[in-house]
Amino acid sequence: MTTLKVGDKAPNFEAKDQAGNTIKLEDYAGKKLVLFFYPKASTPGCTAEACDLRDNYQTFLSKGYDVLGVSADSAKRQQNFINKHELPFPLLADEDKEVINAFGVWGPKKFMGKEYDGIHRTTFVIDENGVLEDVITKVKTKAHADQILG
């Protein structure tokens, strides 16, 4: 779906997280960032993915990675998702889809024979200089940390 590829500069972004804090790409300058886009908070696949990243969060930190999730859910829904599953990382409430569109992960999807527009589950690994180190489009929700960390 996305046209971004390894070696591209990550699109600059600015959005509010679940607590109303403004988060920008430049906040992560000098750090690596795992930026994961997911369709909807508290759904089974998204919960499995977020919890797998949570369970491996200390490993990400020890390897110099920060983790940031993005969906088009409201801040309240994101906060509930964090509370329910004790997620240690912020979630962007990208209701206007600015970040989602910047990364090109919004588009036509099929589910149970129905076509609709939605977020394509995609993860971007961004290096210290804001360059894409990896683009994962075939996300394994239950083993996503392994996909990222190898």
Comma- or semicolon-separated keywords:
150 residues; alpha/beta; five-stranded mixed β-sheet; two-stranded antiparallel ribbon; 5 helices
Instruction: Give a count of the beta strands, DSSP E runs of length 2 or more.
Output: 9
Terminal-residue CA separation: 23 Å
The fraction of residues in strands falls at: 25-35%
Q: Average pLDDT, to the nearest integer?
A: 95
Rg over CA atoms: 14 Å
Helix count? 5
Structural category = alpha/beta
What is the helix/strand order?
Answer: EEEHHEHEHEEEEH
Biggest sheet: strands, sense, closure?
A: 5 strands, mixed
Shape: globular
Assign a percent range to the helix content.
25-40%
Q: Which regions are unreliable across 5 or more consecutive residues at pLDDT < 50?
A: none
| Major β-sheet strand ordering | 5-4-3-8-9
